[in-house]
Specification:
Blueprint: H1 13-66, E1 70-71, E2 75-76, E3 78-81, E4 85-100, E5 104-108, E6 115-116, E7 126-131, E8 142-147, E9 153-156, E10 162-167, E11 184-199, E12 202-209, E13 217-233, E14 248-261, E15 270-281
Antiparallel strand pairs: 1-2, 3-4, 4-5, 4-6, 4-11, 5-10, 7-8, 7-11, 9-10, 11-12, 12-13, 13-14, 14-15
Length: 286
Amino acid sequence: MSLNLPGRRGATLVELLVAVVLLLVVVGLISQILTQAPRVARGQSERHGLHSELRVAAQLVGTELGNVAVHRGISSDLLVTGSSDVSYRATRATGLVCQITPSDVVVTADSAFWFALRVPAPGRDSILVFVEGDSTIAADDRWVALPLLGPPTTTMCPSGGAALNLPTVVDTVAVPLAALSLPAPLRTFEVMRLALYSSSGQYWLGVHSLSAHEVIQPVLGPLLSNGFELGYLDSLGTTAMRPNDVAAVRIIFRGITDRTSGAGFGSSPSPVSDSISRVVFLKNSR
């Protein structure tokens, strides 16, 4: 025996179809979320990794260029100032000259005055000696570049104390030794180059020693085609027209990942890109 209860009825076919469609939509959305979640997480991780790499590169390049010296607008260690490359004298050692002859520069080896990243290397490093003209006039002061013709040897300063002898050749006409004021500041340097370059269809920031005739090596990348951009500013913050006028360098890095990932749910896979910029003041520019 069955009972017919008023107000109770079974589901109609239309209602069943609507329920099935809604269920399929919900299942599809859940499936899409579960499928794309790892890709979104990977994209966020790659963006964070890329930004970290750019930040480290900006710090390293900023430190390198921040050690490039400018000398009151008279001279500069900047040699080439391109929009995507820069060449400069990179200091490798500093010291004080206690004696100079036409064939040798003798520098004190006292650790209070001699600071070196490494032993000066002939064929890679050169010498800069500071020549002061009239002590009351800054405009005639200059750094004179000399070649390093052999490895340093140990010796003594004329006044006593351990020293290093740097073999060279001095143009005594350009640098009258009798008029040279000692002790005189000295630096050893090599000419380095930072540049944006293309390899295997991708762009990279590379570095190499021009002094040692090295092949450029990648230090950051891949980058966008404008991934390393340089601007040069004078002491007034306007565009510097000559290397000697540069007081600061504006650097922009634009990086890109070589893997694709989604930026958000429903987005198409694409490489992750990011950028970072900073302004570096040259040594002695302020």
